[in-house]
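Entry — protein

Goal — fold tokens:
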Amino acid sequence: MMAATIDKIEVNGVSVPVIFEQDKRLPLVTMQFVFKNAGSIADTTKAGLAKFSAKVMSEGTKKLGSGAFAEALESRAIHISSSTGKETFVMEAGCLKEEFDNALKYFDLLLKDPNLTQDVIDKIKTNTLGSLARKENDFDYIASNELKALLFEGSVLASPSLGTQESVKSITLEDVNKFIAENLVASKLIVVVGGDVEREKIKAKIAEVIKSMPLGKDGEVKKYEVTKEPKEKIIKKETEQAYIYFGSPYNVTENSQDYYKARVATFILGTGGFGSRLMEEIRVKKGLAYSAYARMDITKSSNYMNGYLQTKLESLEDAKKTVKDVVAQFVKDGVTKDELEQTKKFLLGSEPLRVETMSQRLNRTFMEYYRGKELGDSLKELELIKNLKLKDLNEFIKSHKEILDLSFAIVTKQ
């Protein structure tokens, strides 16, 4: 077993990065085509278009149709699926080692001839509208989307990645066609592959698939700023609980020198479960909620802090005030030596669990590459965490007063 490496495939004047790890313990292969700048941030015309297009890419080829395509894969135990994140569109294939050539063949067919028909569009539209209708009573979903709408008002990040009833109804065959043509292109591609395979052999095979892909254009990921003025939105629903979602700007970028300090700070504030400040204050001391979290969301397209809790309707104001107080105290006084030591223990101790499987290791290397870091940066980060001094961490925390500018999206009773 070896660690993941970064290589390249040169095709048609494009240099496509390949993240590779050989693992011979099981006769399996997994491969991902990750397209950058092609997730929901590419939904600039219609909310939900990226997710919708991923569903189309899961409907087989036009020639075979979704049924026959699925049967062909099933008979060989090949799995092919498509999904989207905020910034990426991912097509994935997994199979037994001896079926990899067949998996590539079907993967290639899918890229060349997706099932872009009106029937498929109508089917996905019906399913998506159905799941949006079911989410009308999912108050976490509603509060979370409202928070994004407040934090990123007027930008593509303000819209739900699943889309809205209106935007999904308006998606046409032409929209999906255009989205796929612009985004599933060689110049946006990063290949991630691992398993019981030889690197050079697999690169040659994957190069054949890339050869027939359109070249396209790779754009920079656009950065969206969080609204500076704190805002609040209250949504009235038939609910027995109040759902409180909160967020604020966090001026730390994904390639900042201080990223590891932000990771430690947020862990102590609200990511670390029972030991965290929010949980301690809101659940343990005041009994206002079963759980309360805060985490940082730091990507190429945005950086902010967000969190949530559920509480009884009558303790809504108390809970909201407590969140503000906990964050204010945190920024004012920083953390204690004990909190820092406990966090170090946890982060360093749980590290082996984060790289147990091949897919975890591949994903970690992918993230290092994607964030513009060098290979092995995660290990360096652990070393920095291990040596982090209380004084330096507290200086960092006190310098980030922007997290005090909390916006709230709250679902409560009529």
